[in-house]
User: Fold Diaminobutyrate--2-oxoglutarate transaminase from Luteipulveratus flavus.
Amino acid sequence: MPSTSTSTTTSVFETRESQVRSYCREWPAVFTSAQGVYQYAEDGSRYIDFFSGAGALNYGHNHPELKRHLIDYLAGDGVTHSLDTYTVAKREFLETFEEVVLAPRGLDYVVQFPGPTGTNSVETALKIARKCTGRQDVVSFTNAFHGMTLGSLAVTGNSMKRAGAGTPLYHSSTAPYDDYFDGETPDFMWLERTWSDSGSGLDLPAAVIVETVQGEGGLKAARGVWLRELAALCRRHDVLLIVDDVQAGCGRTGRFFSFEEAGIVPDIVCLSKSISGYGLPMSLTLMRRDLDQWEPGEHNGTFRGHNPAFVTATAALRTFWTDGAIEQNVAARAHQLRDGLQRIIARSDGATLRGRGLLAGVAFEDVEVAGRIQAAAFERGLLVETSGPSGEVVKVMPALTITEAEMAEGLEILVDAASAVLRRTDGTADAAPTVAADREPAFAG
Amino acid sequence: MPSTSTSTTTSVFETRESQVRSYCREWPAVFTSAQGVYQYAEDGSRYIDFFSGAGALNYGHNHPELKRHLIDYLAGDGVTHSLDTYTVAKREFLETFEEVVLAPRGLDYVVQFPGPTGTNSVETALKIARKCTGRQDVVSFTNAFHGMTLGSLAVTGNSMKRAGAGTPLYHSSTAPYDDYFDGETPDFMWLERTWSDSGSGLDLPAAVIVETVQGEGGLKAARGVWLRELAALCRRHDVLLIVDDVQAGCGRTGRFFSFEEAGIVPDIVCLSKSISGYGLPMSLTLMRRDLDQWEPGEHNGTFRGHNPAFVTATAALRTFWTDGAIEQNVAARAHQLRDGLQRIIARSDGATLRGRGLLAGVAFEDVEVAGRIQAAAFERGLLVETSGPSGEVVKVMPALTITEAEMAEGLEILVDAASAVLRRTDGTADAAPTVAADREPAFAG
Amino acid sequence: MPSTSTSTTTSVFETRESQVRSYCREWPAVFTSAQGVYQYAEDGSRYIDFFSGAGALNYGHNHPELKRHLIDYLAGDGVTHSLDTYTVAKREFLETFEEVVLAPRGLDYVVQFPGPTGTNSVETALKIARKCTGRQDVVSFTNAFHGMTLGSLAVTGNSMKRAGAGTPLYHSSTAPYDDYFDGETPDFMWLERTWSDSGSGLDLPAAVIVETVQGEGGLKAARGVWLRELAALCRRHDVLLIVDDVQAGCGRTGRFFSFEEAGIVPDIVCLSKSISGYGLPMSLTLMRRDLDQWEPGEHNGTFRGHNPAFVTATAALRTFWTDGAIEQNVAARAHQLRDGLQRIIARSDGATLRGRGLLAGVAFEDVEVAGRIQAAAFERGLLVETSGPSGEVVKVMPALTITEAEMAEGLEILVDAASAVLRRTDGTADAAPTVAADREPAFAG
Amino acid sequence: MPSTSTSTTTSVFETRESQVRSYCREWPAVFTSAQGVYQYAEDGSRYIDFFSGAGALNYGHNHPELKRHLIDYLAGDGVTHSLDTYTVAKREFLETFEEVVLAPRGLDYVVQFPGPTGTNSVETALKIARKCTGRQDVVSFTNAFHGMTLGSLAVTGNSMKRAGAGTPLYHSSTAPYDDYFDGETPDFMWLERTWSDSGSGLDLPAAVIVETVQGEGGLKAARGVWLRELAALCRRHDVLLIVDDVQAGCGRTGRFFSFEEAGIVPDIVCLSKSISGYGLPMSLTLMRRDLDQWEPGEHNGTFRGHNPAFVTATAALRTFWTDGAIEQNVAARAHQLRDGLQRIIARSDGATLRGRGLLAGVAFEDVEVAGRIQAAAFERGLLVETSGPSGEVVKVMPALTITEAEMAEGLEILVDAASAVLRRTDGTADAAPTVAADREPAFAG
Assistant:
């Protein structure tokens, strides 16, 4: 059972760490260890993880097979840090990525290691798109999230985060994401028309950057037809299409790339989060071969050669992506998840299902509800996050390797937490004892 | 002896990796393992590492004590990825950093984990400086290097790298670094005067960002008096002083922070590269307590909680910074290094010594020479890099833990390589057989 | 009959004046004098002026009453140039403007003399809007035209003109003008939604700038309901509404201000072109009293005190705006004009009527037609311009003082020119003799 | 004697005109008429004008010869407003400008009419410089003044005026004007070095824009050798040199162009203020023939064809610039002026002479003094302005046609006013009666 006396154990965080810290405010536990879908705090509490490091832990925590390769590599004094020199670990990753990911999908992307974070990958994509087209503007979508460094922030929607720049943001313009107007208007009417109208005032952009599912922006999922129309529009106007697959990629929505289902081939793809498979910092920028117009060293960065991450990335691709097992599990678990979420939706007027695959959730009309469910779930031993501009969506993002039983266990807690919150919201009494009873089995300690 | 038939083993790099790759072009070996100051290639060659991951490997490769802690943590399923939730590993790091680094130096910085790379830390520093002052402009210095994402790139000097943005760069202005005019003008005349002159056209900046030694810009080292005057100037005008200690910090110049020797206390400090001690991605932004004006989550990033790096960082601080041994070794080895470099300088008219501590090198008048010495050193089993806008400086950056014998061994190769190149440059015959003989001992295979 | 041998008389223009010259390419006459709606070239040709200096000559050329005041003032050594010192001429203008324009309409605008051109007025409006709100972005509309200096150009739609900046343009975003999507979407859906959505990525703007009729952008006229909704939207979100009435104001659409008919009261109004009444450079920026937050001298300019223009401006207000005669004439002539334009529309499939009041025209589906009609009209002694991003609209803009007979005379030529062009376009023979006969009466010389 | 009861006569200014008004605050008279160097207020006061419309009235007020041509043109219904169509008045101006100004100086500039104000001319120069070079940045100098629209403001130094933009200003960087460091540093050390250093962080600019005398920035006058070195530097680096001759040109410093004395030929020249000769709005942008890369209409503006100004401009060139009389008068009067200013300097420790030709003044160490002298001079019937970032310079700028006697009369008042102020500043009694006596003769009314 989670301790409530965190004052002594968290004090250095409060006295020494910046106020910018955030998740720890919702989940004030001090975590020690983790395995699979479970995370453990130092007070002995166990939590089911329906958060997965915001998508960086698609194969769960500390997967044994990946861990084995990682420890073997470290124990054998494999090169840890290599900048962009050649290493055996990098070669194995490149060969595996080619063999397991690119070749079977008929993709011929050039691979860049732009620095080990998602925003490094996005910045790199924006740079190469501008450099290759000679144009400045990049179109992003309402409620997009692409990162916190200056270039990525300019194509990010959230106004609080944008204000953090302390300076105006440049060379980005915003277009409505799929269904932004609830189907009231034809898709891409605005971009199609303004790009064709030399008097529109909208300069033709270098690129469009899009997430197929908006992980931070409220789990809006673009329809396949919308993505195909977007790709066709970009092609007609010679505008590059960048898919930011940092959160939705690496199998999160079923296929390895989240855009496969739609049948499109972006010009540039950003990957990070789960590409290492183990939560280690790593990212890739994939680009059409003719866009690889960099001078040697024109983009660089100290941690481009993080070999332990290459090792786990290679192991993850070999372990999970050489047969169809993981795709089948995602499909089955996504079905199970939707069923569970429908139980919550049934209890709240106006609540709607959001997302795709194992990146799904429930949007509530009352924007306070999702945060309360997050808190109630935490009390009950479940880590689940909110999403959306007002945090109005409960966002569920378990490991892709979660079992049916684990999913059931987590959903049980989530439904219970939601019920408790929705009862309170309705003014009905919160049956606290029931909750406590429900919660007990969720904790090991 | 290094193999020359790299065609088969490096082919996937050539066919699949982006043209942007750079170090591998100068050092076309495929590295497998590393220990201390030695790095090994798959053809059996051994290299002495006078490069140290561009400063990310201050304690050498795979230091046994750090490795032990790292493997123990991983083996015990310690939390790997935690975003900004609380973890035991993070608490231990914060407590250790406070106890070993901050407290003894009387510093009360708030610590932010801004994402695991140097450019994340710089972007964060620029954001908070702009946010807190309400001003946009940031002054950087000639030949500065601060990173490749859009905000950091705007305060970076190199024109080739700047052009990679594909867009104009904003809100930065450039001032002459120490000795840019060879002492011809009083220091800070320009900034002092324009900041005091309401008609100058130079808007008062939010901050000045400075490296105490310009690692990429040619190993120019600022004098202590120059840094003190800069700090005083900033204080007089209420301009924030940011020290980018990504490359020169973590003991590289002797003390933990490179600015300690000058006796200044910056308002914001950027740390990365060797902060993890093991070459793992990690960075910090340290800021004056009153500057910590972030909203929770106003800056974020997936890999802010890279716990394996926290573990090795804590171990590194405990291993190396609780007594004065490493500072003494840096001082002694820096002396030894300077003596070695003087032997090279003696052979080349106009060559000059650059740098400070174990971040030192030789600048040549003929800008081609340094690159040739790098190549000749590589042939002889030594990894040494060039620096400066035209690559005119041979840059030596061994592990801080290097022994006297290892340093001597490396310097012997470097002097030999330089001699061979300078003889060629002089038109005298290159005594090739001698070189081959010299080189042999450097290789294990 | 216009001379075709302009080579000798225009040679200094060709050898000495910049290639940027434009109207002279369509109308290669050398004009000498003008009176009312007639303009005379040095070869003796007479032209009916359906162009009116692009709206700067709303009361025709050299109106006798205004001329009398102007010459009297000059002959009496009235102060010509006064910067922003007080002069009797300026006081008379201010008093008259207050009495004749502001008071009867219940408007309490503060009046700024920002420099004597439309773009000065727009730049001033943008500056004060940004200064008062502390926000940067300004929303303008598709196909807007607001001027050629950097601030105004950023809110102008035409891509060729934007490219002339030679630099990216900042802090402007574009929204669809009324009917941009032919009624397919609800008005202001985009602005309403994104301004209310903190995650949209569209920062709340300082202001919206709008023309009620797009003089350069193709004579699109906004409906009253659209303008009222826009004004209400801005008020709800505390965004300033700027009406650029440089071209459509000063009676061009009937009332003194073009926005009166819609019943809205903008926060800021830009006036220029016909405010002097005589084609002399002059402009005003009108602003809500609480927005007048300038420091003395914070905006300045040499020709803010162009007293001859103040004199003619005062005379024009007294002559034309103290009774309803000019409004009645505009209404009657606009009716007559529409009837004439309908005769052209009847001859061309897909041609549509555009504009409002005496700022009206015909848009053709074939974008080449309007230019050909302009040329044919010039040959026949009529000055009429094209408008729109592809010059696809014949734009008719006679003096507001034009008589019924003069209008009939001009329309006769225009219809004839259009007929000739449309016949040619249809492949039918051009009845040249008839044209010549038609045209003769149009010329005095 | 000036009335002190301005309350009734200036009330509409106070109730209706924007707070931005400025000169009227220092000179609260209501001016009616003017002739030569005298200006008259409605209370009968006469003022000697040592201000000349900030340089727009180089030939004095309402010069009879120019007036004659102007009234004749207006009376004869000459075309007043012509946009950029050909007119006889424009041809005569172009031919005269070529014959009287360009040809005798061996200059082959293309002439653009960019709109009738100085800032229009500067914006045009910046646009064409960026367009032709493909570069963005423009270097301007400390304390420069180039105009108030967004592009010109970005190259203007004054911080109060810059803040009026309400937005950051782009693509400008500042370099020290001649003598900014009192000769302590070699000229152009900074530009020369940074433009040659690819790592400097200063991107090579499109252009440098310079005033030969800083009319608003404190009457600093660049030495000829400095201007020649600047021109040579620009040529070596293929950077365009723009001379903003809006205030210092048209004979103000002796020759027609202020840069002639230095023997340089700028790539682009901005002219305005006195080019019409009569205080009428007009401006020119002169450019090297190969820089005239405009598309027709790529830059435009309503008041480019202000024919009354062309008429007076032609008359001014023919009246004043076909013999050397005016240059001789400027030389003689400048000598007389310097002698007078020396009398003031002699009374104030640290006061220094500033300027060149008839654009000269005195800088005081106590920044309050110049404003007090302006006020005391006004009381005594003399209009004289202040200049400099803190208004620390008394700036004298009489008509170039001023006679020896008129100059003596004005100087007498100025010296008297200065004496009174400096006595007060010294704490000695102000001999008020003497002042009153002195002043009397200055007034006609």
